[in-house]
Amino acid sequence: MRHNLIYDCIVVGGGPAGLAASVYLARLNRRVVVVDKGNSRASLIPRSYNHPAFPDGVPGQVLLDRMHEQASRFGVEHIAGRADRLEQIDDAFRCIAAGQSLQSRAIICATGLVDVLPPWPHATELVRNGNLRVCPICDGYEIGGAPVVVIGNSRRAMKEAAFLLSFTDDVTVATLGAELEGLSPADLKQPIRLVTARLTRHRPVPEDRIALEFHDGTMMEAVAVYSALGCRPQSLLARALGVKLDEEGRIPTDQHQRTDIRRFYAIGDVVTGLNQMGVAMAQGEIAAVAAHNDLTETFSDR
């Protein structure tokens, strides 16, 4: 194991947020390393049509590849592996990752979140191929008035179904046999329908749709399907370090992305707020400048 690699900042997570932060830090002449396992949520996006400057849309992995190339041109180091542990040592931090012990004066946490998907084989590939959707803000426009099924049994699912009425008037909530959590069918906003039967069969069909067959005989031949089963913030490293989390397990920050631990910043989907690539990248830029300024003040205080 290699020891005592001193950086100005370690960025944990190589999605749009973390990569944007790393570019800004490098261009501020900071020595920065990105620790990333390579499973950014953005990599699952088949094509984003609402990201600025891409009128024909851009696949998530293509955007990540371009950002990686940009970061490397400015000397950002990259460690392909998972960050296993973060700890404070005196006035700095240690990150154990990929068999290395890295030290830095600041940490930017960009660990993101994981969507909870239906218990289907190859559900992740369905997301990657565009058949199973997780963000109506991102791609609701592309529905084009087609029928939509929202999978879930919580108030979150009901809110998502109501939101989708902006794009279609044919919306169904399917609980897949689960009971409604703290809700009743009367809580559904019209004209949203409810199917509570278990799912018998599902299969992807052309045009980014899924065919569904339910145990009660209900069949839907080609519908846009959204998973509204919630998400899991990837905040265990921050929690172990003692960073304050909110009730959902996300990391609260101030307007400069600072947390309650000095020189520990959080950005992107792991932070409370809107889960959008543009938001994540802006947070990365804000955190990078804040870290640079805080590090400068730390040096001047010595």
TrEMBL record:
The keyword Flavoprotein applies. One of its GO terms (molecular function) is oxidoreductase activity. The keyword Flavoprotein applies. Transmembrane segments: none annotated. Residues 7-284 form the FAD/NAD(P)-binding domain. It comes from the Bacteria. InterPro entries: FAD/NAD-bd_sf, FAD/NAD-binding_dom, Ferredoxin-NADP_redctase_2. Keywords: Flavoprotein, Oxidoreductase. This is Thioredoxin reductase. It comes from Rhizobium fredii.
